[in-house]
Amino acid sequence: MxxxxxxxxxxxRLIACLVLSCMVFGCGGPPAGTxxxxxxxxxxxxxxxxxxxxxxxxxxxxxxxxxxxxxxxRDSLSQFPERPVGEHEATYKALLxxxxxxxxxxxxxxxxxxxxxxxxxxxxxxxxxxxxxxPAEPDD
Length: 140
Hints:
By secondary structure, the protein is mostly helical. Helices cover about 65% and strands about 0% of the residues.
């Protein structure tokens, strides 16, 4: 009887792991017909939300965290030439320039007030991109 209980426990753990992995990683990918990789407006909205969320977190956290976030944002945005940009190419270039300036400011240990001012300026530029602002998921 004890052998059977062990089997049941292992089987239920296996099923729980499978269900959990489907919940975390998804089962089957995105729904058909939702490929917006060629849509400049969808990309603009994605960039807008990425920058707004990341820059707000950079502003709130310690300088080391802010620097790392700005580097990550810059790396993500630097791929824009391979993405559909539509009429927003100049905005993406200006945003890259803003992020480069922020990286320099962090490197030079600029005053927090100067960094926050530049972050606010960059946020204002990002807000000019089209698309809905999607609230960030809370960090747990």
